[in-house]
Amino acid sequence: MSYKVLLADDERLDLEGMRTFIPWQKLGMEVVDAVTNGFNARSVLTSEKIDILVTDVRMPHMSGLELAELALTEKKDLKIIFVSGYQDFHYAKQALSLNACGYVLKPMDDQELIDSLIKARDQLDLERKRQAEYSQMIPVVKNEYMLQLFEGAYTESTIEVLHREYNLVHFAWPGRVCVLEIDDLFKMEGQTDESRGKSNTWLDSLLEWSQEAGILHGCKIDKNRVALLLQQHTGLAVVERLVDNVKREFGTTLTAGIGGNCSEVYEIERSYRQALEAVELKMFRGKGKLIEFEDVPKSEMDDIKMFDVRMDALFKALSSYELVRIHDELDALFQTAKNAKSKFTVRNYAFYLLLKLDDYLHTVNEDLFELLNMDMRSLDIILQLETIDDIHLWLRQRLYQISELLNSKRQKKNWKLISEIISFIKDRIQDNITLRDVAEQFSFSPNYLGLLFKEETGKNFSEYLIMLRMERACELLKNTNLKIYEIADQVGYRYLPYFSRQFKETYGKTPLEYRRK
């Protein structure tokens, strides 16, 4: 895209010279017009989008300085270059006050004008780049402010920005929060990378459609959820149309949770939490439903809250390789499902449990499908299992398998670390090495590393260090003619009596007796 330039000079020869001899196209510029007075220039500035004004300082009726001042009141980012046959400092000073990109004296040196034009172009390039970056940041910033509003983490300045920049001040109360959750994201993530990318597409499209439908305030919550703040006049039919749009465009359904009414900003968080709770009922009610919090029986909400508690306990048991506890927590979870007495609900419950499990595994940098060496299609077995007990047993076996794999990977990872630490200690056995020194070397806290060391070796750090030193002392006593005090020094003991006492406590003999045997 080229920048548009307006030339203004009452000297026609100078005007024609600028138009003819400056390589405008090469500079990435286009001369829109060349006029001989300030009034005509003003008219062009009003009718055309001009980026750069090149004007003579002194013109009849309206000077170039007056023209520039007027133009800048309407277009603050206009770049101005003055040309003048006068070297008067007064003119130059006024030009500087208008932040001109150049002040070129007549008779003009083409290169001097070109340099000023390049300076103006560079400034415009930088401003465009910043504007583009700012435009990209606008939705990100608004999303963050709206998320703070929904989660109750806002400040007074957050509300001020939302009122001033995003028109929250004109919101028609009472409102209520709607949370929309994609139903098939789990399936999409179990397939190709291209499928995974669709989540962002539907999130962005849904927010765009919401704006078009008059829902001006919303944000992304996470990879599969959007929250919308519905105004008083926004009926649920609008939400249903949004759901239909997603189904038509992306071939997937949405579940909507609707919170209760809120009449002030500080009540939005409550409505948001209620909408989240309503969405969680998908596992009992099925996908693609619109669930209003106020229509949900208390007993059903209690089941959801207990489910979350049980899931947390199950994940802790899973990560700590407590198979009996995994068995008990899964039993407790399935008791709720059995109360539903619906095969559809139980299957949906199992899929939901796997979704939560996959989310948890991602927090520890693991993947459900990679751990089980399977893909999304493999989960169709849940649809083929005939009884609740069959589904329960299948899930229990998978959970045992995952816990075993996590434990095995953790042990391998930890033992590799401990092996590196032991090698590090052996290389520095003669130094006064401490647990803190080793912790700093391997970027751990001393307390954590001490616990890990004891867990993997069965000994605390100081006990293991003594064992390594004594083993090394035995090798030197057997295979060298070094004096006892030299051996003590080589294994980290600067005080010989202490070394001898430690050696005798370990082997029941003094170093000299050990060497003579």
Q: Could you please describe the fold and organization of this structure?
A:
This protein has 517 residues and is an alpha/beta fold. Helices cover 62% and strands 10% of the residues. The protein has helices at residues 12-21, 38-47, 64-74, 89-97, 110-151, 156-166, 185-189, 193-212, 236-250, 268-280, 282-285, 298-319, 323-340, 343-363, 368-372, 381-384, 388-427, 435-441, 446-457, 461-479, 484-490, 496-507, 511-516; strands at 3-8, 29-35, 52-56, 79-84, 102-105, 176-182, 218-222, 225-230, 254-258, 290-292. The chain has a 5-stranded parallel beta sheet, with helices on both faces. The protein has a 5-stranded mixed beta sheet with strand order 7-8-6-9-10. β1 (3-8), α1 and β2 form a beta-alpha-beta unit. α2 runs parallel beside α3 (64-74) and α12 runs antiparallel to α13. The longest helix has 42 residues, at 110-151. The model is unreliable at 188-197 (pLDDT under 50).
Distance between the terminal alpha carbons, to the nearest Å?
92 Å
Mean pLDDT, all residues? 84
Q: What is the strand arrangement across the widest sheet?
A: 2-1-3-4-5
Percent strand equals: 5-15%
Oligomeric state of the chains present here: single chain
> Count of helices?
23
Q: Which structural class do you get from the secondary structure elements?
A: alpha/beta
Low-pLDDT ranges:
188-197
- What summary fits the major beta sheet? 5 strands, parallel
Characterize the overall form: flat
